[in-house]
Amino acid sequence: MSEKETKKQNVLGGAIVLVVATALVKVIGAIYKIPLTSIIGSLGRGYFASAYNIYTPIYAISMAGLPVAVSTIVSRNVALGKYRDVKQVLKVTFPLFLLLGLVGTGAMFIAAKPYVDSVGSPLALYSVFAIAPSILFCCVMSTYRGYYEGLSNMYPTAISQVIESLGKLIFGLSLSKLVISYSFKQIEATGAVFGTVIEQESDTAIVYAMAAAAAIVGVTLGTVFACIYTILRHKIKKDGITQEKLVNSPLAGTKKSTMKEIIAIAVPTAISSLVLNITNFIDTWMIQNRLESVVSRHFDEIMSIYGDSITAASVAKENIHTFLYGAYDTTMDFKNLIPTIMMTLGVSAIPIISGAMAKKDHKLVGDTVNTVFRMTMLIALPAGAGFMALSGPILTLLYEGTANEPGISVAAPVMALYGLMMAILTLSAPLTNILQAIGRADVPAKSLALGCGIKIGLNYLLIGIPSINVNGAVFGTAAFYLFCIIYNYAVLKKETGVKIDLKTVIIKPLIASVLCGAAAYGVYMVVANMVGLGNTLGCLAGIAVAVLVYGISVLLMKTLVKNDILMLPKGEKIAKILEKYKLIV
Questions:
Q1: Cα→Cα distances 57→103, 213, 222, 449, 480, Å
Q2: Which residue has the higher pLDDT, 273 or 426?
Q3: Which of 451, 471, 500 is the last residue of a domain?
Q4: Contacting residues for 294 by C-beta, under 8 A, at least 6 apart
Q5: pTM beyond cutoff 0.70
């Protein structure tokens, strides 16, 4: 990437590169997970989710803090013209990432059996084994991702993400479908498969467990190909740092000092990610155990709520908690959609804010923070309103007529609740990145640790109430993120003096989002029910009109800010047009 191209990647320029990639990844992920769920059903999805939920905390221990540390230190050195130090960062971190990847993979193999037994899902063991090697390849790949992000070059990260997802799609779906096809042919021919005699439909759990593991093999293969891409890209295209820059750069510090600098940022950042992922791990363990408990103690009441779904899915009593958890996990695709996309704003803001802090440019810090917050709310609030208004119709559109259809009635209320809390869920990650960029990576670790107690307590209490059951996990999650946001923002304001423009960041987007949600629901009800055109057309029409209503509302209320528009590709031309009609401030 040329110097000119790198300079053009400001906070929104870099974010757009990652947003496009993330959007592609999410589309590929939907193409992967929707038919995958149709293939393996809610039971298989439960095994799939169980593997992911032990994978994420070990992944966090292995490498979560290091890419942020690399990006922060590289961008700081670039801002000060210390290019020899930039080069040294990569030399120091590569062997460290490699070692951590090996340790993380080994730890996952060791922890697999105790974990699956503890959550009452021993057949998830195959999926855990299948995903363990991906930690190694992710760690190596993240060396280069963090390095290039610090150079404000988001393309290596973006392209490797797409490669990773394509590998998962191609191999994951093919292998899982192959396992399902092979299994039922074996059952038909011999009455047994994978060493298990199949006497009734509930005995086929082993089939879905192996199919889930096959799907996860695709995930691991995706990381292998993405890792190969990042290594080859660096060897062939290099990093854009010229010999002239190196010659004019001061001598690099010692490797020991570079390592200390990395550790100073990486350790608290890793602790933050670790706390968050351990919280999610405890969450997964607790949800399944509390569901198992509530089903056992209040079986009749649970059946009165979900009996039709459980019967339609032909789930044995001992697997009902896994079925409910699998249906709940289906909503995670929607709950994480917007936060994952908007996380790119935080990632792209790290080099900008870190460089500004190195130069003591507090105005740039404030402007960047407001841009990140405003863009986050402009996307998260209407998306949440849409999920609230159309949770049932969207799930029906995607899963009607599939193996996952019985889980829709369980998942729809959960999805609607997460829609209500979407802004809280989405803002957390960019705010954490901003604190890391200003040198306060310790703060998210503290807030997450305190918030973890709130989440665990609420989950235990609420999920144990049979009338609330799995929906209680949503309230615990919302309380957790809300506490962290309040705590982290208080520190950010104290450290930087940044002031948030409440009118353009919260009030105007919220009003437009309420109109958006109302339009989506109203149009759906008219088209699907009153006119009788059915769920699909009603859902699509509701979404289309909601987008139109939201766009018009945002423009008429002058929610957009000129400085933000100027950061976009062709921003000057767009800003002139909007100014002409007095649609921006």
A1: 13, 19, 20, 14, 17
A2: 426
A3: 500
A4: 302, 463, 464, 465, 466, 469
A5: yes
